[in-house]
Amino acid sequence: MADAPKRKRLEKTPLPDLPAGNQRFVCCRCGTAFSRQKGYFPVSHSPMYRSSGYLPWCNDCVEKMYDGYRRELEDDRAAMKRMCMKMDLYWSDAIYDMVERTAGVNSRIRNYIGKTNIVRFIDKTFDDTLREDSAAEKIALPGAEKLQAGYLPEEEAVEVEIPDDVRLFWGPGYTPGMYLELEDRRKYWMSQYPDGYKTDAGEDAIIRQICNVEIDINHDRAAGKDPDRKINTLNNLIGSMNLRPAQRKTDERDAGLETMPLGVGLQKWEYFRPLPPTPDDRKDEHGIIRNIITWFFGHACKMVGLKNSYCKMYEDAMAKLRVNHPEYDEEDDDTVLSDIFGSEHSGDT
To answer: What is the spatial distance between Cα 153 and Cα 176, in angstroms, rounded to a whole number?
Structure first.
């Protein structure tokens, strides 16, 4: 009988020489003792570690374990999911996508563990991941085995009657199931506009492209394909749709005005709700602009010696307000008094 293979003997790492009172938190992988868990051990909300609230592995060991799985699996996402299974962490593609977008100097695994502590993921473990995967596998759509990339087969779709206006908007060539998908996305986008808003031809063209790209992205994900290029196209289309103020939602126009500085709020308001052109008969109705130009710009130009239209307006306005003293050539005193007091007083003196 062949001898059974012997198990590899693990060497224990000696604990550092620390005071006895500080040797309370020891990493179960490397054997290093720490005086406290905060900052040295990852936080955990798993029921398995509820008494301490921390994982039994230190941060360095967690990163080494993650690097080992990355080399073994040659896939960062698969390595992260394996670590979640080991540490009883909640696995979600949404969390991993957030880690990918914010990847920087921090460790990916520690960044992922930190994001599992946000409100919508807190208190979830890998058991929740298994439950969600099991529930997703049990979902069965009518005729799902006949679906190809999300499109309804023609033999089942012929029973669906597509209105003529829907076909006219989307154009020919789609299956009835695709028409229904496109029309659902169109209703969603139209719900983002103010009530009663009418789109023009250019906006209809952008909405058609957005709905098509969205459905293509969903089909690619269902088929396991990479939709990154189509996502970039979708972002560009959405940006084009939101270029003009009339394409914004009503509630977005006033969002955040209460907390903005006055100048920023006025600039945003002017961008979203620009004032209409002033009719010619209402321009400077109270003369405010003319007074500012005359008494501010004109006076300033006069002070510094500039000869321009502003200075001319100021001089003309001042000329109207000046009092010219009358000059009398070779006239006697009676004539002067008559001009000042009237003819009835000229002979009293």
So the answer is: 9
